Amino acid sequence: xxxxxxxxxxxxxxxxxxxxxxxxxxxxxxxxxxxxxxxxxxxxxxxxxxxxxxxxxxxxxxxxxxxxxxxxxxxxxxxxxxxxxxxxxxxxxxxxxxxxxxxxxxxxxxxxxxxxxxxxxxxxxxxxxxxxxxxxxxxxxxxxxxxxxxxxxxxxxxxxxxxxxxxxxxxxxxxxxxxxxxxxxxxxxxxxxxxxxxxxxxxxxxxxxxxxxxxxxxxxxxxxxxxxxxxxxxxxxxxxxxxxxxxxxxxxxxxxxxxxxxxxxxxxxxxxxx
Amino acid sequence: xxxxxxxxxxxxxxxxxxxxxxxxxxxxxxxxxxxxxxxxxxxxxxxxxxxxxxxxxxxxxxxxxxxxxxxxxxxxxxxxxxxxxxxxxxxxxxxxxxxxxxxxxxxxxxxxxxxxxxxxxxxxxxxxxxxxxxxxxxxxxxxxxxxxxxxxxxxxxxxxxxxxxxxxxxxxxxxxxxxxxxxxxxxxxxxxxxxxxxxxxxxxxxxxxxxxxxxxxxxxxxxxxxxxxxxxxxxxxxxxxxxxxxxxxxxxxxxxxxxxxxxxxxxxxxxxxxxxxxxxxxxxxxxxxxxxxxxxxxxxxxxxxxxxxxxxxxxxxxxxxxxxxxxxxxxxxxxxxxxxxxxxxxxxxxxxxxxxxxxxxxxxxxxxxxxxxxx
Lengths: 274, 375
Hints:
The complex is a heterodimer of chains A (274) and B (375). Chain A contains twelve helices and two strands, in the order H-H-H-H-H-H-H-H-H-H-H-E-E-H. Chain A has helices at 2-33, 37-41, 54-60, 66-97, 103-112, 118-132, 138-162, 166-174, 179-208, 211-216, 224-229, 239-268, and strands spanning 232-233, 236-237. In chain A, strands 1-2 form a two-stranded antiparallel sheet. In chain A, strand 1 (232-233) and strand 2 (236-237) form a beta hairpin. Chain A starts with a helix and ends in a 6-residue tail after the last helix. In chain B, helix 2 packs parallel to helix 4. By secondary structure, chain B is α+β, with helices and mostly antiparallel strands.
C-alpha cells in the first residue's frame, strides 16, 4: 500500500514535470510578450520584471496590420472549414452507407495524400498557382486549406457515420425520405457532435497553418502566421514583439477551444461508448 | 391491401465468375392473396431476408419482376412502393420522440398536422403505447420499441407490410405474446404481410402460407398444416416440427411395400405402399415424427412395424416425455406419455404409425408421396 502511494507520487510528479516542459514555451512566450525588448534578450532569464504593454501596443498599432492578418486568418480558416464540410459530408455519407468495392481504397488514398511532405508538392503547386494568378490570393489560400483538411474531414465524418446503423437510412428511405431529407433529418442530427468536432479540428489546423501561408502569400492574403514571422526581420529579432503577436494569434483559438472543449471530447469519443 | 406477385425473381451479387449456382435467391415465384400473411422461413443465409429486401426495394433484383396490385415495381424506389417495413433492429430514429418517429413518414407526405396527430394517436391506442408518445426510443424497453416500430409501419396505412424478424430481440415470453398480437393486428387491418423468421414455430403459428427456403431456393410453399403433413422433401420434413422428424434409410424389399435394413422392417399400406412399390429395388428414406411413435409394453403381442432399441436419453417435459432410442445405427426420437416410466439403458419397443409416415427418394431427397390437392 505504501509502495503504491510512493509510486503514485512519483508518477504524479513525472506527469507535472512533463506538463511543465510542454507548457513552458507557452508560458515563456506569454511572459516575454510583457517584457521590454532589452529584458527579453538578457542572458540570465528574468521571471520577475515590470510588465509593459509596449509590445502589444506595437503589435496592434495602426500600420502593423494585425487586423488585416487576423481577418485573413478568420476568412481562410472558416471558409475552408465550411467548404470542406460541405464536400466531406456527402462523400462520407456515400462511402459509409453505400460502399462499393473501391471505397476502402479511396479512403486509404485520401489519407495517403497526407503522407507526402508539403515541401514535396510546393514547387508544382507554386507554379500552378503562379499561372492561375492565385499567389498571395485569399481564395487561393483558402482552397489550399480546404484541400489540406479534406482527408481529415472525410475520415472523421466517415467514422461517425459508420457508427450509425444503416437500417436508419433504409427506414427513412422506406418512410419516403429523399437522400437529402435522410441526410438532413436523420443522419446529420445524429452525427452532429462528431461533425462539430471534425469542423473544429479543421478550423484549428487551418488557423495554425504556417507553411503554405508563408510560402504562398506575401501581404495581401497573408495570415497571422505571416504576421508573427514578420517580426524576424533583416534588422534582427524582436522577441518581445514577436511574442506579443504570437499571444494575439493563439488567444482566439485557445478561447474557442476552451469553449468547445466539452463538445470536442464528446465528438472525439463519439461512438466509443454507447 | 394488395396482391403481391413475384415472378422468376433472381438475386445474384455477381462476384467474379458467378453463375446461377451463386444465386442468393433463385427463381422465386409467388403470388399472394389479397391480405394474406406470408411467412418466409429458413436457416440463416437461405435468402429469405434478401427476398424481403427485394420486395422493399432496398435490394435490386437481378432478373424477374415484382408487382404490387398489378403495378410492376421492380424498378420503383422503396418510397414509391407503398410499403412499410419493421426492421429486426427496429431502426427507430434515436433523436426523435415516439410521436415523431411515427409521424415521420406522414410529415414527408405533407399530410396536415391534425390528421397526423389523429392517425398517430389511433395507432398508438391500438398498440397500447399512447402513454409513451413523448419519450425517446432509448427510454423504452425492448417490447415497447418493438411496438413503436410496428406503429410506425401501421400509421402509414401501406398496401404491404414487411417484417424482418421483428421478434428476435425479445425475450421468450414477450415473443409469444407479441406473436399473437401481430396476428391479431393483421386480422384487424387485413394488410398483405410478408414476415421473415428463422423460427419454424413462429412460422407455423403466424403464417397463412409459409415459404420454406434453403440456399436461395424455395423448397415448398404451403399452409402450416400441409407443410407438416405433406413435406415436399427431407429438408422441409426435418425443418418443420419440434422435435425434428426421424429419418430411417433402408432398401425397398422384394414385396415392394416393405422398407428394411438390418434393424427394422416397416410395411406400408395404401397410397404410401403404392409410392414405395413404384421404386422397388432402390433405397428410400422413411420419415417418422416423434409423435407418431408410441410405446409398446414388453408383453404386447404386436410385432409389426416395431422399432426395438435402447433408451439413450430421457427428457420429461411434463405433459409428455421425449426419449431418444438407439435402433442399431439409427438414433430415433419418440414422444411418449409422461406417466410411462422409462429409464436410460432400458430396452424398448416403439410402434410406428405407418399411416403418417413420409417416404423420400434417397438420392433426390424429394417426397415420393402425392399430396392431396389443397382445399
